[in-house]
Amino acid sequence: MTLDEKFMILDADNAPGQEVRKNTNDIESILQGEKLNGVLVDFSHGDVDAFPPAPGSDMAWNTGFERGASQAYTEYRGLADIRDVVAERLSLFTGHKVKADKELIITPGTQGALFMALGATVTVGTKVAVVEPDYFANRKLVTFFGGEVIPIPLEYKGILSDNGIDMTKLEKAFMDDTKVFVFSTPNNPTGLVYSPDDITKIAELAAKYKVTVIVDQLYSRMLYRDEVFTHFCSCDIKPENFITIMGPSKTESLSGFRLGVALGTSKLIDRMERLQAIVSLRASGYNQAALYTWFNEPSGWLKKRIAEHQVIRDCLLSIFGAANLQVATPQGGSYLFPQLPPLNVDLNTFVSLLRYQANVIVTPGTEFAPSCTNSIRLNFSQDIKAAISAANRIVKMTEMYRL
Amino acid sequence: MTLDEKFMILDADNAPGQEVRKNTNDIESILQGEKLNGVLVDFSHGDVDAFPPAPGSDMAWNTGFERGASQAYTEYRGLADIRDVVAERLSLFTGHKVKADKELIITPGTQGALFMALGATVTVGTKVAVVEPDYFANRKLVTFFGGEVIPIPLEYKGILSDNGIDMTKLEKAFMDDTKVFVFSTPNNPTGLVYSPDDITKIAELAAKYKVTVIVDQLYSRMLYRDEVFTHFCSCDIKPENFITIMGPSKTESLSGFRLGVALGTSKLIDRMERLQAIVSLRASGYNQAALYTWFNEPSGWLKKRIAEHQVIRDCLLSIFGAANLQVATPQGGSYLFPQLPPLNVDLNTFVSLLRYQANVIVTPGTEFAPSCTNSIRLNFSQDIKAAISAANRIVKMTEMYRL
Description:
alpha/beta, 3-stranded antiparallel sheet, 13 helices, homodimer, Aspartate Aminotransferase, domain 1
């Protein structure tokens, strides 16, 4: 693969957060109808002004800065004292005992953890099972490291008991020399939480076929009422090699700190650290100190944050539902993945029009699976009034551009 | 190359900052002589307690945090307003007009910039000319991306006019299908500053043979009395494709913020951003705000900082000189690269002994070139008293272990 081809695949023009770089000069000529006024809502990521960083994170940073040299230059895998604290809290949270010294690494964001985890397990020719739809970087990362993507379809539009990945396809892929399986739960972009049965089954299949599993649980703290979360790492039967990825960027709104963690097989954590040594040395030292606040928020804080998100989720579901836009109810996380009606413009054009004409930024579904050409992703961690108004503008736009 | 082989090459056990992970259980058995007491000095990196972060950087961080969402989520290449400010200051500093929108990216440390720059230019089979000795990650990065290292020797022990890289070898490498040349000036680990003639010659050769040049100028602000620095990017004749890397981690002691920048050819900056999108999304948003202080330090601050380093440099040179340890006088940066006398233990053992017996941490020369088996690197950005005492302990240890 030439460098040009390699970077063609890494095209980030439609990636969340990059909308400002888009050229909208020619859009006037294809406009249908009036501009829809309203406060700009950027659904491509959460609004940390609406849901500010978890309390104390800035104070923790300042304490870290004051601590000086020992906080600025940590081991590449992160400051030992912070790993001790985080390992203990993650052991409690996941039900799986994490050894701070061997089985945990602090990374620049969960994106960094994902990059390092795939870099540690994928090389030229490695077959990697990737769920579709799933986080947009998964496919890009596999391709970047020279691996081959084996798509595993996810059913998310049906009734709950029918949803989930196609286990027959997964086992077939595992039998057919797949070495790595990467997936997110709660799923990004649909909010589907993998059932206990499915997680157990995945772990058993991976153990049987000696497949490395990388599970992205970035949103596992934001679970809606009565939902049950199963931690892959807590399964009794599981593969020798696995990595669980988490971080405080979403529920806790610490994205501006760029912090993530990976826990798992010591050999893989070692490799990830070696890779981190040439990628960025370490997660920013002072920022690491913010992890002292993680899983240690004030009593009731998490419950309130989830409840507030649940209200927004339900309002938007009701707006889209009333307009007959099909959308699954997310069980966790803060993404909605509504399906658009047939339109007289293509998906990327409609997304550009939404931004230009309706002051709403969303991410096209094709970032998450090539086949999702009629879906858009919204991160609804937003000011509730602004989000409701923007969702109504999206509905109006689908009516204006309906085929 | 299998993953095991790939990660063998990325072995970071002897990398600066990782000494704490070394097992020293067996060292007692090879100890010769007494323990040498003294305050621990970690020469593997600068001491940001001795030389604290540039004034205002923490206030800038707090202002960034207060700014909220717009500072937390920036474009992958960094916040536009900060790129505007930095581009203007770098244009002044380098004498090369940098376009903020197209030709500049903010990265997680200069390590991140280097990773992205080599990732944007090296793929399987790419021949890359790498100076020896030079920054330890250069060779590892080339190998990681599947490239082939073409070593270019650097003479740094002679008189000034004889020092520099072997231009004949460089041109031969360029003629022989080398696509990329990476080097640092001031050189890490020797402190050699490439002469104006050499920089001009490199730029002309690279233009002639269409070689991409990646120049790491991390230390270009810390120049000792009467030294002249030539910016590669300011050459009239230069290749179409080049990247200059800088950052505030060293002279300015902002390493705890993990900030770097790369300026250069728009096409390569684009690729670096695409890569950054899957590596870590962006340099930590709040941290980026510290760049407002960069090249904008209080009047006299830089001059004083350089003068203080020059005093330490000269003290250590004099200590090593009196003990007949050969060491080049660094023209810039804060590294010394002394040569040890023949010892009765190998280099890595001696480095372990220095840590265990003399409370001094240094980096083995072999991290910088396979052939530097009798050199050690010291970052002398330290408390001056502690550094002098530690240098004396190093001398004593070379006497105790002399062959």
